[in-house]
C-alpha cells in the first residue's frame, strides 16, 4: 500500500466513522460496518489507529483541535469596542463555518456527553470545554476595559452563543422540516451571525 493510498484510507475511515458514530454512538457501530462502507479490509482500523476506540477518539480530536484553534487565535484581548466587535464577528463566522463542515462531530460529542461510560472525556475537556472558558475570558477582558457593561453575566452569554451554534447543527433536520432553512446555507449562517451580533452588542455597551 503506497503512502497516498494509506492517507486516503485513513481520511475515509475518519469521515465515515464520524458519520456513523454521530448517528448511533460508539457501541452500535462495528468495525465491519465502518470498513464495509469505506471499502477496505477490517484490519485497516487497527493498522491506522490501533483499534475502534482509538479511531473514535481520533474523530473527536480532529474536530476539537479545529474548534480550539479558531477560538484561541481569534479571541485575543480586545483593545476597543471596534476591536471587540471585529473579533467577535470573525469568531462567530469561523466557528459556525467549521461546525457546518464537521457537523458529524457535533453529533458524536452529544453522544459522548450522554454516555454512561464516556471514552474521550480528556479530549472533550481539553478542546471543547476550553472554548466557553475562552469566550468568557474574552468577554471579561472587554468588561475590564469598560467596553461592555460590568453587570453582564459573561458565563451566560458564552453559553447562549455556543448553544445556538450546536443546536442549529444538531437539530438541522428538524429545522429544515419546520421552516425550510438549514445552517449549511450561507445566507442562513450569515443571518444568524448578524442577529447574534445585534443581540450581544446592541445592548451591552457601557
SSE blueprint:
Layout: H1 3-24, H2 31-38, H3 44-49, H4 52-74, H5 81-101, H6 103-114, H7 121-128, H8 130-144, H9 154-170, H10 172-179, H11 186-202
Describe the structure.
The protein has 11 helices and no strands. The chain has 206 residues and is an all-alpha fold. The protein has a domain at 59-202: Tetracycline Repressor, domain 2. The longest helix is centred in the first third of the chain and has 23 residues, at 52-74.
> In the CATH hierarchy, what is the class of the domain at 59-202?
Mainly Alpha
Distance between the termini: 62 Å
- CATH T-level topology of the domain at 59-202: Tetracycline Repressor, domain 2
Would you count the extended β strands for me? 0
Main beta sheet strand tally, sense and closure:
none
- The CATH level-2 architecture of the domain at 59-202 is identified as Orthogonal Bundle
Count of separate DSSP helical elements: 11
Question: What's the overall average pLDDT, rounded?
Answer: 89
What global shape is seen?
elongated
Radius of gyration: 19 Å
What attributes characterize this protein structure?
Tetracycline Repressor, domain 2, 11 helices, 206 residues, mainly alpha
How would you summarize this macromolecular structure in one to three sentences?
76% of the residues lie in helices and 0% in strands. It has 206 residues and is mostly helical.
Amino acid at each position: 500500500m503506497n503512502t497516498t493510498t494509506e492517507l486516503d484510507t485513513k481520511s475515509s475511515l475518519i469521515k465515515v466513522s464520524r458519520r456513523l458514530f454521530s448517528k448511533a454512538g460508539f457501541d452500535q457501530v462495528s468495525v465491519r460496518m465502518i470498513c464495509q462502507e469505506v471499502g477496505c479490509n477490517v484490519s485497516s482500523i487497527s493498522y491506522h489507529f490501533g483499534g475502534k476506540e482509538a479511531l473514535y477518539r481520533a474523530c473527536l480530536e480532529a474536530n476539537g483541535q479545529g474548534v480550539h484553534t479558531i477560538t484561541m487565535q481569534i479571541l485575543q484581548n480586545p483593545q476597543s469596542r471596534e476591536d471587540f466587535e471585529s473579533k467577535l464577528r470573525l469568531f462567530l463566522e469561523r466557528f459556525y463555518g467549521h461546525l457546518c463542515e464537521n457537523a458529524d462531530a457535533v453529533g458524536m460529542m452529544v453522544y459522548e456527553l450522554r454516555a454512561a461510560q464516556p471514552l474521550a472525556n480528556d479530549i472533550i475537556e481539553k478542546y471543547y470545554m476550553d472554548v466557553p472558558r475562552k469566550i468568557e475570558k474574552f468577554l471579561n477582558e472587554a468588561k475590564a476595559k469598560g467596553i461592555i457593561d460590568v453587570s453582564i453575566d459573561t458565563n451566560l452569554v458564552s453559553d447562549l452563543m455556543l448553544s445556538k451554534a450546536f443546536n442549529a447543527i444538531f437539530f438541522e433536520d428538524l429545522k429544515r422540516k419546520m421552516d425550510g432553512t438549514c445552517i449549511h446555507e450561507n445566507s442562513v449562517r450569515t443571518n444568524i451571525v448578524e442577529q447574534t451580533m445585534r443581540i450581544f452588542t446592541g445592548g451591552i455597551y457601557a
